[in-house]
Amino acid sequence: MLRWVVLGIVGLLVFSSFGFVFAQEVKSLQVSSETCSACSSCRDFDVDKALSEANAKIENLTRLINQKEAELHKLYAELNKTKSIETLEKIVKLEDEIQLLKSDLEFYKRQELSLELIKKYTRRTPYGVEVLYYRLPREDELVKQYIEKVHPVRKDVDLDWFIAFYRQAGELTFDEYVVTDMKLRETIGEIKAGNATVEDALGLIEEKKQIWDRIYAYLGERDKLQTLKKLKELGRKQTIMKTTGVEPLSIDVGISRGWGCQLHYCFGESSPALPSQAYLYDFQKVAVWVGMYTSSTPNMNYFYDEYCTYDFTSTYDIHEYWDKAVELTYDPILGGSPVHSIQVKWFFSAYDSDDVKHDIIWQFECDATHCWLTTGRADLPDPNLVPWGTYKLDVFENYLDCCRGCLIGCQCHWCNTHCSGCFACDPSGAQNFVHEDKPNRTIWP
Predict the structure, then answer these.
(1) Residue 93 Rama label (left phi>0; alpha psi -120 to 50; beta)
(2) For residue 296, how many other CB atoms are within 10 A of its CB?
(3) What tens digit of pLDDT does each residue of 229-240 get?
């Protein structure tokens, strides 16, 4: 099984399992990067140049969005007069186009923020970029600040917990977006049948915009904390090395896309993402992720913790994930566990018809009494006998993190990074959730 999971760091065993970190990203523009033949060539990394390039992208995308929104304003004026379903469909299509551009824009804004933090807390030396460790905010002060932002919250949290919290918040909110988008498509059909009004559709369009605003806010907090965490880790390492007479390392800060050898990045351009329906074969089990929540169903505001395992139970024993979550979070003061629901993802790898390997995901949720498949998710397979064939997929393009399994100069891959490791890599940078158009349904008992 280890051949399917690249950990990259020794000792990532968590809860009698292994750990891997998830930095999910909603749709973002792919940025190709030039490879560096040696780390010495990467020491000329110029933060100001990188910031200038990010700002240029932001300006260009802002101009395109403004042009599209001017067109949209005219369509809304026309719809207000005519109530035409054809005009409504044009609006929905244009809103989606604008949202894709905004996703790219928000990605570059987050990248700009990370680069500004790098500039603020580093300096250039003859050996590379050095972190000004003494200037960085103390972790306990950051944690205190974020505890005040998030209610309710555990009192034993650290920076990693908040990074996981905001990552999970973005992921769960994206699930909410998918459901709302499906409702909008259904409502348009109802309008055509005379069973709904244009106003019903406009309400859902506005709801989708609000959901995206929340996603961007969560991802912004996540990336800010991830950058500060990486700077602190590298600064501590550089401080130790200088006391032993070792040259400072070139900076290695985990921004999700590009900007040269000092940052996490993947060599070359990504392969095309899978279509929404694809033939897949040679399934292999990779890993299982379990997110734990204090709410009755998984809710981003009540994220508690996560664990990972290689154990793919049968559908008859599916509730074992719940039992493990309760065991891991048992609180002797409470006399039980604070966890009231979990979300489980089965990660597989499989090959498409072009013999390209992809990550393939089945998702479900549980509480104390039963487990159920979430909206649109396909029936769970026997994990030991996953069939070949054609599958419907929800393809979340550019959703993965650029993951390194080694030091500067080694090749990177687009991977899932739950619980502090690298796994279920996909050359397209996408996540592929197996999908069927079915309502929620119980899978256990």
Answers:
(1) alpha
(2) 11
(3) 888 887 877 765
